[in-house]
Write a structure and sequence with these properties.
Layout lengths: L3 H24 L13 E5 L3 E3 L4 E7 L5 E3 L7 E4 L4 E3 L10 E3 L4 E6 L12 E10 L5 E11 L1
Parallel strand pairs: 2-10
Antiparallel strand pairs: 1-3, 3-8, 4-7, 5-6, 5-9, 9-10
Amino acid sequence: MLAKSLVFFIGIGVVAGLAFGVYLIDVKNTSQLVFVEGSSISIVTEKSDFKKGDEISILLVNSGTVPLTFSDSSYGLRITGLSGILMFSPTVSDKQGMSNLEPGDEISFSWNQIKNDGDTALEGLYKISAKGTDDKGNNVEKSTTITIWK
């Protein structure tokens, strides 16, 4: 027969574990694609942790209900260090051309972890961001963070 105090503390542990698990599910929600009414852009990657040298696929989705306009064909995509220093931005052949993304449309990019200066990206945290404007001229910006490991 188990002691009453042992059963009591095991019960508290089970309840605390369940409560902590539910809390982590809500806090650690990694859903990158959320559709909303109005203007919105989402940045989707297949995962948030990458090995050094992995190809990183990036999907930009107009997750709102209004068309978005971007200043050039890079769709405002920038990959920076957490300090804000630009590491990568897609090379565009026509810097003057505007790009549009209709509601629900998506465009994909890939990054081979080579920075704009030709060096390989080091391990660490990187911020992927995209910036455009909606039909009323309001800025629409979204960012997500990824980690590159050894």
